[in-house]
């Protein structure tokens, strides 16, 4: 099943994904299949511009902060001169996450790409279809594989694929407010993880949850340095100026939200719904467990809403498409693009505050933000 937003994506050759910073290093990697094809055919024009990193990863060389194959028109020399089959897997598939499972191809989008974000703005409601994507270029290696020869694993996969469509259907049930849909999903996620604890919405729980969210965001954006693109750093500084202040409280956040966000929020809530539906199709729920998957999803959502308020307050204007794009792109760049950082560090911050089950905290955040 492939979402309509995936089908709607078209590259506009902005060149952003071809610029180097810490987020993009992994996207410049050259997979073994492509490397073998290039070296086997002796294409020196490409091989001389492949280097080896300190981690022994083959990677396209950069000229300054951009890929050496990016021309002045933001087009790829490899693709123009030799064809897409000579592109590394990362270049072939980006911004798509392409996996394979017992039900076929699994495709979602990463929202480090502005054009990918525009697909969830253009789609009032994501729909799914089994129809084959005729223009899809498959990578040599899938991002993940959700299949197994082991009967126990197959049962887990079956159970997960029974849960997933119901979860997405629940997220898209617009007869209920989004907050209520998220609460139901949180309870289902805890049950799937066989957790018997309930979610606490006391004032103390909510206040502590907001404080932890602030600490997580400050911890992450404080690590930005000159290896990132300048616009990204500038945008994070705008947010830090809003939230990195001892005066930020739940009351202050709600004041900013009421002033700049609430009047237009209903108009754009469907975009957040689409963001969440896309997140579910990444299958992080399966690989990281339903409770942590829910935690991650809610922290991303809460961060996006905090960033929306921050950008709106900084620019002194109401919520609009550009603010939504800025919020989603910078949150996904800071967090989703750093999965290895996300899991252990956030877990450590949450545990430091004595919250034993992070999904409960995430649900509390969702009810406030």
UniProtKB/TrEMBL annotation:
Pfam families: CxxCxxCC. It comes from the Bacteria. Keywords: Membrane, Transmembrane, Transmembrane helix. The chain crosses the membrane at residues 291-314. NCBIfam families: Lys_methyl_FliB. This is Flagellin N-methylase. It comes from Sporomusa sphaeroides DSM 2875.
């Amino acid at each position: 099943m492939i979402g309509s937003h995936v089908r709607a994506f078209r590259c506009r050759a902005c060149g952003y994904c071809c610029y180097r910073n810490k987020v993009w290093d992994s996207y410049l990697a050259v997979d073994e299949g492509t490397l073998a094809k290039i070296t086997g055919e002796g294409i020196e024009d490409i091989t001389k511009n492949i280097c080896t990193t300190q981690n022994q990863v083959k990677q396209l060389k950069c000229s300054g902060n951009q890929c050496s194959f990016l021309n002045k028109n933001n087009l790829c020399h490899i693709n123009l001169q030799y064809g897409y089959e000579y592109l590394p897997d990362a270049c072939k598939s980006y911004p798509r996450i392409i996996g394979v499972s017992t039900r076929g191809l699994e495709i979602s989008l990463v929202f480090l790409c502005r054009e990918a974000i525009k697909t969830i703005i253009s789609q009032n409601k994501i729909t799914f279809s089994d129809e084959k994507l005729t223009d899809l270029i498959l990578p040599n290696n899938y991002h993940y594989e959700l299949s197994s020869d082991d009967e126990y694993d197959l049962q887990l996969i079956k159970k997960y694929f029974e849960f997933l469509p119901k979860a997405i259907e629940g997220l898209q049930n617009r007869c209920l407010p989004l907050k209520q849909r998220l609460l139901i999903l949180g309870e289902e996620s805890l049950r799937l993880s066989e957790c018997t604890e309930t979610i606490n919405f006391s004032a103390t729980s909510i206040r502590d949850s907001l404080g932890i969210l602030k600490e997580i965001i400050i911890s992450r954006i404080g690590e930005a340095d000159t290896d990132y693109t300048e616009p990204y750093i500038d945008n994070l500084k705008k947010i830090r100026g809003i939230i990195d202040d001892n005066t930020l409280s739940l009351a202050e956040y709600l004041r900013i939200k009421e002033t700049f966000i609430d009047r237009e929020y209903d108009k754009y809530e469907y975009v957040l719904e689409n963001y969440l539906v896309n997140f579910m199709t990444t299958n992080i729920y399966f690989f990281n467990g339903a409770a942590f998957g829910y935690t991650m999803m809610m922290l991303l959502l809460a961060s996006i809403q905090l960033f929306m308020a921050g950008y709106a307050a900084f620019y002194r204007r109401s919520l609009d498409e550009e603010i939504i794009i800025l919020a989603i792109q910078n949150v996904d760049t800071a967090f989703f693009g750093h999965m290895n950082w996300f899991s252990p560090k956030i877990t450590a911050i949450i545990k430091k505050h004595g919250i034993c089950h992070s999904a409960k905290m995430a649900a509390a955040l969702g009810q406030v933000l």
